[in-house]
């Protein structure tokens, strides 16, 4: 993370943060360029494409948007690492077009419509180290230069790098050196309660960074999933863009006139610039009005995300501002698609408009408290009124945006409590909620245990999948992100607390009654639910690898868990896709019994062998099959999910057996 000399062995925290700010801006810029290209794609046969071409275009849009979402996850990882080092996330970025020197000469990012040159540029940006992929035509750097300095500097300076993957490898090296210089506790001294994780947002990369290991894992995940992935890394950004190129070339060969996108402007600006040569600025009144609302929604989203990272958990404003910020994307998408379909204006008659992604001059978070809530409520109201005026034209996309903004405005009005006092100016982890008489906890074999008056509460961290039934259903019992004791079994009615434990799908939460009432018992029906793009959720008298495993467990079916056979959330990180609604199969044959011991034996490098009375159900509870013996896929590759079809042998799946 040495931004001035890779040979320097003691990087300062300032230099480390400076490098992370560049990483955040780079991920942010990439996300915008991918979104811009996706917004320009056509969406109807009425727009000059055939049904076959439209089917391909629709698939491309989905894949590009998915990549953009993963870039948002990368950005969140960088923000979490920034906080771990004691910094505040860099939410903003420089406006397009970027000045030479802001990034290395070979890393050109600009807003451009989807076409073969733009697609080739995306492939070039995501290329693995050592790749010979050329850049797209028209994306050559304005001038060639080398960043950095020959000797050590106290002033942070930009690094030179050929690929984004190389940049992240350098950041990881610098972070190791920082930890060597200051110790892990000294280097990773930020407040983890400010970070975001999968408990708050469902994004790949949304994991808290609390040590060097988790920080390096975040960097490695970014490289593996996206920029810098090995050429044969399945489902990486590079591979997905390359697959689009193959299909695009085939369609062009069949029809050389094929144009999958509208000619949106390259790096459009909102007004005539002081140096207009070679630039596109918006003059069409409808385009200006549409982009105005879109840019304002994007700016408010940045404000909300910055505000989210300034508030420690637990705080209702943190979750509310995050939810509203992500919700604004649902308004931005139809507005940006509408802009790409409108003319830029008479000065540039050959191209269309496009959302310009204007950033605010300063995206620093507003001071937490009622004043910020008032600001957000006012701004949502202004956006809603502007969108309503736009929707008067009858355009379906602007009507959708107006409806979304109106809903978000109501949510902000109801959610931000202006009567709440402002928190202390010093942001610290939440400790006030911890009861003074908290019972001490003990830990044995990874199971934390706290004695309450009426029950003993137990928590097994390695089984937790952050389903959040505990922290949302019993927030006074389960105190997230606090220093000291966090389990308080006497803070809630014991019967209600038992119900909360029963709702925990992973079995991480268990209990033993101390008031003479019966402990949890096996359910009357053994069930295995297939979660959408997620794990198996088992309920029954479970015997895992021959040992009692309680009555609830979530077991990996994506093949990527580091804690097999249990789920550890890796399905989010790898972008695992598997239906939670598999087709109904053998669902009519009644079982002689529906309960009893359920034996689950993971096979070496193979599936889960399940023996016992079992009803396999979809995520919504629909019957899929009734079995007494079956093999369930856990490599993630079966074409007959949830059942094994032997794919584990073909893909070289490795995992311990029973």
Automatic annotation (TrEMBL):
Sequence ranges assigned to domain Iron-binding zinc finger CDGSH type in this UniProt record: 533-577, 622-654
InterPro entries: CISD, Divergent_4Fe-4S_mono-cluster, Ferritin-like, FeS-contain_CDGSH-typ, MitoNEET_CISD, VioB/RebD_dom
UniProt keyword terms in alphabetical order: 2Fe-2S, Iron, Iron-sulfur, Metal-binding
Superkingdom of the organism of origin: Bacteria
Annotated TM spans: none
Gene3D superfamilies assigned: 1.20.1260.10, CDGSH iron-sulfur domain, mitoNEET-type (3.40.5.90)
Pfam family, one: zf-CDGSH
Protein name, as recorded: Iron-binding zinc finger CDGSH type domain-containing protein
Species assigned in the record: Dyella nitratireducens
Lineage: Bacteria, Pseudomonadati, Pseudomonadota, Gammaproteobacteria, Lysobacterales
């Amino acid at each position: 993370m040495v931004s001035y000399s890779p040979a320097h062995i003691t990087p300062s925290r300032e230099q480390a943060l400076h490098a992370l700010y560049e990483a955040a801006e780079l991920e942010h810029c990439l996300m915008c360029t991918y979104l811009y290209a996706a917004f320009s794609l056509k969406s109807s046969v009425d727009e000059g494409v055939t049904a076959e071409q439209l089917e391909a275009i629709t698939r491309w849009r989905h894949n590009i948007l998915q990549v953009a979402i993963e870039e948002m996850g990368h950005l969140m990882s960088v923000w979490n690492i920034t906080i771990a080092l004691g910094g505040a996330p860099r939410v903003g970025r420089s406006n397009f077009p970027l000045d030479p020197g802001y990034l290395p000469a070979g890393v050109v990012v600009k807003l451009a419509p989807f076409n073969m040159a733009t697609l080739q540029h995306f492939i070039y940006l995501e290329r693995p180290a050592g790749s010979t992929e050329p850049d797209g035509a028209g994306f050559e750097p304005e001038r060639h230069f080398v960043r950095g300095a020959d000797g050590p500097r106290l002033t942070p300076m930009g690094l030179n790098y050929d690929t984004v993957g190389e940049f992240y490898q350098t950041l990881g090296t610098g972070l190791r050196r920082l930890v060597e210089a200051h110790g892990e506790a000294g280097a990773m001294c930020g407040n983890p309660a400010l970070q975001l994780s999968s408990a708050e947002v469902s994004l790949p990369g949304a994991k808290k960074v609390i040590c060097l290991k988790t920080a390096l894992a975040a960097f490695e995940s970014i490289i593996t999933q996206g920029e810098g992935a090995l050429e044969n890394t399945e489902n990486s950004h590079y591979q997905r863009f390359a697959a689009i190129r193959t299909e695009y070339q085939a369609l062009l060969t069949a029809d050389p006139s094929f144009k999958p996108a509208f000619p949106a402007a390259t790096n459009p600006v909102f007004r005539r610039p002081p140096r207009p040569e070679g630039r596109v600025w918006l003059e069409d009144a409808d385009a200006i009005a549409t982009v105005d609302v879109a840019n304002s929604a994007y700016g408010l989203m940045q404000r909300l995300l910055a505000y989210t990272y300034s508030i420690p958990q637990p705080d209702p404003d943190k979750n509310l501002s995050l939810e509203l910020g992500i919700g604004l994307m649902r308004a931005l998408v139809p507005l940006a698609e509408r802009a790409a379909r409108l003319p830029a204006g008479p000065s540039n008659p050959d191209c269309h408009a496009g959302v310009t992604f204007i950033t605010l001059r300063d995206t620093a978070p507003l001071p937490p408290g009622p004043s910020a809530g008032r600001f957000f409520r006012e701004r949502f109201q202004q956006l809603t009124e502007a969108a309503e005026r736009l929707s008067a034209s009858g355009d379906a996309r602007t009507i959708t945006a107006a409806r979304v903004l109106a809903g978000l405005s109501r949510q902000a009005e109801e959610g931000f409590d202006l009567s709440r006092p402002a928190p202390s100016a010093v942001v610290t982890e939440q400790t006030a909620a911890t009861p003074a008489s908290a019972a001490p906890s003990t830990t044995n074999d990874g199971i934390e245990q706290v004695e309450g008056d009426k029950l003993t509460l137990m928590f097994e961290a390695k089984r937790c999948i952050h389903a959040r039934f505990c922290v949302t259903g019993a927030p006074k019992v389960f105190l997230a992100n606090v220093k000291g004791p966090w389990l308080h079994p006497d803070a809630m009615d014991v019967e209600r607390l038992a119900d909360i434990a029963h709702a925990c799908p992973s079995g991480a939460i268990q209990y033993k009654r101390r008031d003479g009432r019966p402990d949890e018992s096996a359910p009357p029906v053994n069930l295995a639910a297939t979660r959408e793009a997620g794990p198996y959720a088992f309920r029954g008298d479970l015997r895992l690898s021959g040992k009692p495993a309680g009555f609830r467990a979530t077991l990996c079916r994506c093949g990527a868990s580091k804690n097999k056979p249990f789920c550890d959330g890796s399905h989010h990180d790898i972008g695992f896709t598997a239906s939670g609604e598999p087709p109904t199969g053998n669902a009519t044959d009644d079982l002689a019994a529906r309960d009893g011991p359920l034996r689950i034996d993971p096979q070496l490098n193979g599936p889960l062998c399940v023996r016992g009375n079992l009803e396999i159900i979809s995520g919504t509870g629909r019957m899929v099959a009734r079995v007494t013996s079956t093999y369930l896929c856990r490599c993630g590759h079966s074409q007959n999910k949830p059942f094994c079809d032997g794919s584990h042998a073909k893909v070289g799946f490795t995992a311990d057996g029973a």
